Amino acid sequence: MSRRLAAVVAVTLLAVIAPNASAAVLVVGDSLGVGTDGPLRAALSEAEIQSDSLNGRSSAEGVSVLGELLGPEHDTVVFDLGTNDGNAAVATTAGSLAAARRLTGNRCLVVATLNRPPLAGIPIDAQNAMIRRFAATTPNVALVEWNDAAAGAAGVLQPDGVHATGAGYAYRGALFADAIRSCLTGGGGGNAAPPPDGRQASSTDRPANARRAAPRPSGPSLDERAATALGDRLSADGGPADIARHGAALFSAAATSLGEVLTPRGPEPVLGAE
């Protein structure tokens, strides 16, 4: 094989094996972000994801983290915060969203509505109304309707009404993946997997012009995608050791992702239960 042909083959193999690094996503979140991280990576394998999520993180703390981590390489930013601010802290969350918008400039910013039981008699409704207004009136913001999605599907939330079940985090990861994908492709709205019980999320009390998730036809399973990708690698002009190494890594990643999606999570603390 000539040196030039060998170089062409090497570049082709790298294109097949390496993920698309041109799409860089920064995620800043709280405990919900921790649970969503694995399913999101499985659902959005075409993007390079940098994630910093921490249990109990407030939106104001998230603004500081965003300022530290945001770089010129990031195309899209997910600001998955607000739950730990408290149901009455509408102004605090609104200020954090505005600060996140200033920091991210013209990048697409993904935000989400919240789920939380009433705290001291105050429901989460005002927080969500503010988040929906922000998404509807702020340029280049994609809204994940997590509140509507959880209300429209059984078995999505744990008994605390805040954290998701294993199936809920898989659903949440799909919702965020499609919102991010709509940002990367410049589309007007993301698609998302249907709720685990097959019913559609409610569409009440949402601005008509906000980007939000919509149901999509079911695509190939993770196992099927893994098998297809492995077949592509086996047909490439690589040596046996190279094929074996990448095939093993692919199935290991697939098994890890499936385990994170299918394994129910244990109880988590109820936020704000002073």
Textual characterization of the structure:
The protein is α/β, with parallel strands linked by helices and 274 residues long. It has helices spanning 3-17, 31-43, 59-69, 90-104, 125-137, 146-151, 166-185, 222-235, 240-262, and strands at 24-29, 48-53, 76-80, 108-112, 141-144, 191-192, 214-215. The strands form two sheets. The chain has a five-stranded parallel beta sheet, with helices on both faces. Helix 2 links the parallel strand 1 and strand 2. Helix 2 (31-43) crosses helix 9 (240-262), helix 3 (59-69) packs parallel to helix 4 and helix 8 (222-235) runs antiparallel to helix 9. The chain is globular, with a radius of gyration of 20 Å.
Q: What's the architecture in CATH terms?
A: 3-Layer(aba) Sandwich
| CATH homologous group name | SGNH hydrolase
**Count of β-strands:** 7
What integer value in Å does the Rg equal? 20 Å
Q: Could you say which overall geometry the principal axes of the C-alpha atoms support?
A: globular
Q: What is the total domain count?
A: 1
Query: How much is the average pLDDT?
Result: 74
User: Helix fraction?
Assistant: 40-55%
The proportion of residues in beta strands is 5-15%
The main pleated sheet reads as: 5 strands, parallel
Q: Give the CATH topology.
A: Rossmann fold
Strand order of the largest sheet: 2-1-3-4-5
Please mark out the parts with pLDDT under 50 across 5 or more consecutive residues, or reply none.
1-21, 188-270
Number of helices: 9
CATH class: Alpha Beta
- Intertermini distance: 71 Å
Assembly form of the protein = single chain
Structural class comes to: alpha/beta
